[in-house]
Every structure is written in structure tokens, then in C-alpha cells.
Amino acid sequence: MLLGENITLAITSLKSNKMRALLTMLGIIIGIAAVIAIFTVGNSLTISIEESLQSMGSNDVYVMVSERSQEHDYSQKLDGAEYAVSDSDAEMTDADYITSEMIQEMYERFDDDIYAINISHSAGRGTAEYKNTKGKVSLTGTTVGYFITSPIDIVAGSMLSQQDYNGQRMSCLVQEDFAKDMFGDVKEAVGKVMDVELEDSNISLTIVGVYKSASASGMGMISFGGSTVYIPLQTAMGITHSKDHFSTIRVSAAVGVDTEQLSKNIKSFYEPYYRNNADFEVTVMTLESMIAMLTSMLDTITMAISIVAGIALLVGGIGVMNIMLVSVTERTREIGTRKALGAKNSSIRAQFIVEAIIICLIGGIIGLILGITAGVILSNYMGYPAMPSIGGIIISLAFSMGIGLFFGYFPANKAAQMNPIDALRYE
Amino acid sequence: MSSIIRLENIVKKFYIGEPNELEILHGVSLEVKEGEFLSIVGPSGSGKSTLMNLIGVLDRPTSGSYYLDGIDVENAHDNELSDIRNQKIGFVFQTYNLISKTNALRNVELPMLYAGVPKAERRKRAQELLELVEMSDRANHLPEELSGGQKQRVAIARAMANDPAIILADEPTGALDTKTGRLVMDLFHKLNEEQHKTIVLITHSPELAEETDRIISIRDGNIVSEVVKRERQVL
Fold first, then answer.
1. Cβ separation A333–B114 shorter than 8 A
2. pLDDT tens sequence across A30-40
3. Hey, of A341, A351, A424, which one would you mutate to test binding to chain B, going by the most B CBs within 10 A of its CB?
4. Which of A70, A166, B167, B178 has the most CB atoms less than 10 A away?
5. Cβ of A421 and B86 within 8 Å?
């Protein structure tokens, strides 16, 4: 085989014109680097989102009020039913929320299947003050079910009691770090009354317990701009003067219950309540459907960026073709000589195709290294563990070689078809 | 005595069927015996380059037949022509045509590479050939590091690589000064006498032609004279 010789020849030829080779490779380098960086970040993102969703427990069913999609609306109109004209950006009104009665009824209906119902209600953010020490807090009203689905560790004091819940007491649980900052020690915090200044009200909360910060995991507990303070749900409703209604609830299925089936049941349970609601409906999601949704979203983003990278690779490929045509013309006499010495057309073609493939492959490898580096840096910056996608690496190397083959074929064929006499005489 | 080259009534036309159709060779017949040192002379435009291209199977005649070492070239496929060039003909060009960026040794190996000779054998033969042309000490030099005479010697070694039936030399001393040209001519004589190579020398220099066994003069596409200097007894 002449392959080994052709590779040596190609490398010799590239070495003799390093700058040109590098510039030619640039398009391929950028294209491959972009693809690999995106795959790496996308892969890292997917894996960590899946991990964090998994930590929330696969038995949960999320029930939320969401706006009807336009198409959905349209198809229902086709059914012949009559609805009010829907606004695309409808405001939620009291009538659109899930009420306590609905939740109660749902619980009774699916008593055997439901392990716990987790309802939370944000009472807003504010500043807590105790003897001139201040700290930012975010108040979250919860039910007993909340701590069943998202368990926390109490390090001092006790959990919110039944009396706290039933009596709408101004009791609260604070975070360990927050307690240390405010009171010096976690034990000191228990029993203290702190003042909390909210946007439009001032309240006083009695600390009954301190929970461990590290246990914070899952969506409900991610707090922005303040340490999460848990208060009884009804207390939170009282603070915000909210009526007894919710936009999101989380239902934990009992052990051995099929969550998919439960989610279908819950969906059909809410159907009658929202049948005549033009703007809103109840959406029910499980962990699996959320993962599927996120994955498809990420896939769409990956696809879009891949198309852009594909265009970069196409342009790079055209650059390779261009430079190969130049190279073929420059080496016309060499081609003529080789033919006079007995090279077959196929040997000449192979020589130039191999050269084009080598250019693209080297470009691909450089791009790969840059892409992984960029991907790892980006992933780390975003706080995800970097996961280079092996499939992506293999595909992009194969793809860059494919580009070499595809864009190298035409110039190589031009070289192969040269008339040896004309080629020998070429000045 | 066998003829290694037999051209019969060769006609070569260009631009066939077009208004500017041009007939370069008007029915040339020529026989070259094995081991002969032949020269073809003629002024520019006489058709000697065209004749050389036909002898070197770089081109096909419009009509007439050509037998090279018993092979009917006329009916050969393109790939077979490549093999004929590779196995039967050793080209030596006026401009050397060594492959740049490739050292002398690899240049000599090239025809053997296309012939599929294994690497070790290729290397060994290339070294022997460089020794024959007294260029062993320059084996690893690139063409650009060699003088004209040295380049031509490497080119002659390359022409000998597959032990061809004929060496076709097109103005081999054309770009060299008299002294180095002399060395190259001596090398051809040596190959002719010691290795019994058939050599066809195309030249416009009457002095060089005088050294050969037979001089074929070509003018306006016809052989106009044939002078036999020496009758050779060929093995």
C-alpha cells in the first residue's frame, strides 16, 4: 500500500508550508472546537440536571397551573365547544388557582396513592433584625408534606409542630449559617423572636428550630437573595393576605404506586375544574417527563448550535478545497513527473486526497483539544462537572476526515486527470 | 537481433476535426535495436518532442503502430501505459524534474514505489544506483541542495530504478555547462557499455549526437537522414 508513503508525503508537504496549512485548517479548527465545546457543556449540563432531578425523588408528581398553549386552544375550538377568546399573556386571577378544597378533594380521592402533598407559598423576601444584627431572608410557607418530600435535618430546637400549623403561629425554622450569623450559636437562636421587615409589612417570628444548610437540595429550596426561613403555610398566606389558593403543588406517590398513572389520574381530576377556563389549565408532570422536557430542550439548543458549527465546517471545507486546488496547480510539474515515472491516476488521486484528509484531521485534532479545553472551562465556570462527550469526539474526528475526503476529491481528481505531457511542460 | 522499439508509419495530429488541425508527424517509421545508443536531432518545431512523447508512451499516435519491447502500445489501456512507463522506460529530462522536498534517495526510490517494490529492497537498490552515479554521499540531500550536474545524475539513477528497456533522455545536458554536460554524457556511455542499456538521446547539439551509434535527423515531421556511426554487436 502507498498509504504510509502518502501520509509521509502529505506531512512533508504541510511542513513545507506551515502558515498556509494552519490558515487552511482554521475553519476546521473553529468548527470542530465549537461543536466539541458545545457538546461538552451540553453533556455536563444534561448530566447534572438529571442528577439534581433524580435527587428530588422519582415518586413526585408536580401539579401546576399553566397557560393554555395556543395550538391546544385552537384544537379545542375545533371540537365545537365554546370558549372565551384567549389572551396570549393572560394574568392569573383568583379563579384560576388551585384551591385548598380541590387539594383536599384530590387527597381524599387518591388517598391510597398519595403519600404526602407538598405545598409551598412564598411570603416574599425581607430583612430580619435581632438586636441590631441584620440578615436577608426569604420566607417560605410550607405544609407538613413539604418536609416529607424534601427532608431537612434539625440541628437545634424542633420541627414546626401541629400547633404551629393549625394555629397559624408566627413560628419559623432558620438555616444553620443564618442562626450563627444572627445569634452567634445555633442553640442561642432557638426561642428568640426576630423582627422581619417585608416589602409591605413588618412581622415578628419566633424561632422554634434550626435546620442544617447542607441538606438544601431540589428546586423548592433554592433561594435567591436570602436565607430560606420556613414558616407554616397558613401563616405565609396570612402575611401576603392571600386567599386559599396555589399555583404549584407537589404530590408524593405512596410506595409502589405508578407515578405515571397517578399523574394521569390527577390530570383528569383537575380537568372538570378548568374545562371552562380559556386561559389556564392544570399541567401534571413527573420527574421523567421533566427530564424528557429538559433533554429535548437541550437537544434543540445543541442542534441549533451544531447547525452553526456545521456551516463553519462547510466554509472550512471550502477553504481546504481552495488550497488543495492551489497546491495541485503549484505541483503540476511534480504530477507530470510522477506520471512519467509510472504513477497511475489513482495513485495521484490518493496522494492528494490523503493530503486533504490529513489537513482536516490535524485541524480536527487541534479543534478537539481547544473545544474540550473551552468546554471544561465553561462547565467549571457554570459550576458543573465537565463531561466531554466521547460520541461527539469520535463523530467530529470522523466528520473532519469526511470533509477532507469530500472537499479533497475534486482537486485530487483534477490532479489525477492531468495530461502528463502538458503537466511536464507546465512552467 | 531484436528491435526494442518499432515505430511503423506514425502519424500524429493535433486539434483533430477543428479548423486549426495540425499534423506534426507525417508517417515516421523507426526501429531501435536493443543495446543501441541512438540520437534524434532536429531544430525546434521539427516534431522531435512529439516523437519523444510517443516513444515514452506519454501520448498516443493518431495512426500507425508502436511496439515497445514486444508490447503493442496502441491497444494498451491508460493504466497499462502507466505500467509501461514505470517498467520499460527511464526518463531523463532537461530540467531534471526531481521531486522537491524529497531527498535524492527517495527520488530514486519513487519509480520502485509505484512498481510496488518492498521498502527494504527499494532502499537497497536506490543506494546501489546512487553509488553507480557516484552520488552515494548525497543520498540524504534535497534537490535544492544539489548542483545541476548532481541533480541530473540523481535523475539518471532514478531512470534506472526499475531496470527499464530504454532510457529516454530529452536534452539531458541542455541546462548544464560543458564540463558537467561531459560528465553526464560519460555516464550515459557507461550505462550503455557496461549495462547494455538502450538509450535514446534527443538533442539539438550535433557534437553530442556524433558520440552516438546512430543519428536520426528529423525535420518538419519527417525523418530526413539517418547516419550510422558505429555498427554495434549487441548481446
1. no
2. 889 988 888 88
3. A341
4. B167
5. no
What is the domain partition of chain A in residue ranges?
3-52+292-425, 60-286
Cβ proximity of B170 and B92 under 8 Å? yes
Q: Which of B85, B99, B102 is facing A342, going by the closest CB pair?
A: B85
Q: How many other CB atoms sit within 10 Å of the CB of residue A87?
A: 10
Residue of chain A nearest B59, judged by CA positions: A421
Whole-angstrom Cα distance, residue A203 to residue A212? Answer: 24
Of A338, A340, A343, the CB nearest to B56: A340
Cross-chain residue pair A341–B79, CB shorter than 8 Å: no
Q: What type of residue sits at position A209?
A: G
> Which whole-number Å values give the CA distances from A251 to A105, A139, A259, A268, in the listed order?
13, 21, 10, 15
Contact A276, A71 (CB under 8 A): no
Q: What is each CA distance from A425 to A243, A373, A422, in whole angstroms?
A: 94, 49, 5
Of all residues in chain A, the one with the smallest CA distance to B117 is: A1
Look at the block and give the residue holding cell 398519595: A114
Query: Mutate which of B105, B114, B117 to disrupt the A interface (most A C-beta within 10 Å)?
Result: B114
> How many other CB atoms sit within 10 Å of the CB of residue A329?
13
A343/chain B closest Cα distance in angstroms: 6
The answer to whether the Cβ–Cβ distance between A342 and B100 falls below 8 Å is no
Under 8 Å between Cβ of B99 and B64: no
Residues of A with CB under 8 A from a CB of B: 2, 5, 9, 12-13, 16, 333-334, 336-347, 420-421, 424
Q: Which of helix, strand or coil describes residue B203? A: strand
Residue-wise pLDDT tens digits, A203-252? 888 898 998 864 444 433 444 457 888 888 888 888 877 777 777 788 88
Amino acid type, A11 = I
CATH topology for B3-228 is Rossmann fold (3.40.50)
Q: For chain A (length 427 residues), average pLDDT per consecutive 10?
A: 81 87 90 86 78 68 75 44 48 74 81 80 81 84 78 84 83 86 84 84 88 52 64 83 76 80 84 80 80 82 82 89 94 94 93 94 93 88 78 86 94 94 86
Q: Pairing mode, if any, of strands B166-170 and B89-92?
A: parallel
Backbone angles phi, psi at B105, to 5 degrees: -60, -45
Chain B: give the shortest CA distance to residue A342, in Å.
4
The residue of chain A nearest to residue B79, with distances taken between CA atoms, is: A344
CB distance A340–B58 less than 8 Å?
yes
Angle formed at CA B53 by CA B49 and CA B57, multiple of 5 degrees:
170
